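Weekly puzzle thread! Below is a chain. First person to post its structure in token form gets bragging rights.
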Amino acid sequence: MAVELALNPDTVRMIVEKARAVSGTMQDTFEGGHEGEVEFDAENLAEAHRHEGLAEEESDDLTEDELVSLLNDLNVDEAAELVAITWIGRGDYEPADLEGAIEDARNRALGPTARYLARMSFLADYLEAGLDALDL
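Winning reply:
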């Protein structure tokens, strides 16, 4: 089932790479496998993508900062789609329920998406599984 999204699958793959690099240094701070509520910040998400500067690292390990920057650069629609892909990859929704997952992501947004997603221990795995399930 191929779908068309506002979020470019290549951007998701870039986020997967950054999340995978960060995951080795993350602490599991969640109880019972729940990461908490989705949080979007519409003011920060409304701006266009700006990924320049990510290649110019000032220190040896800016991967976590790069991941957060990529997530903060998403607009509201892209952020909701990314959360929905994550939920599908995690098994919370079936691929056929993508539209409902996106709508739920919008409705449950309480703050910055970066804070919600960057804390997930298995974000890269969930995103890859979601991309595969959606044939992206």
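Puzzle host: Confirmed. Bonus trivia for everyone else. Residues 9-25+38-48+62-133 form one domain.
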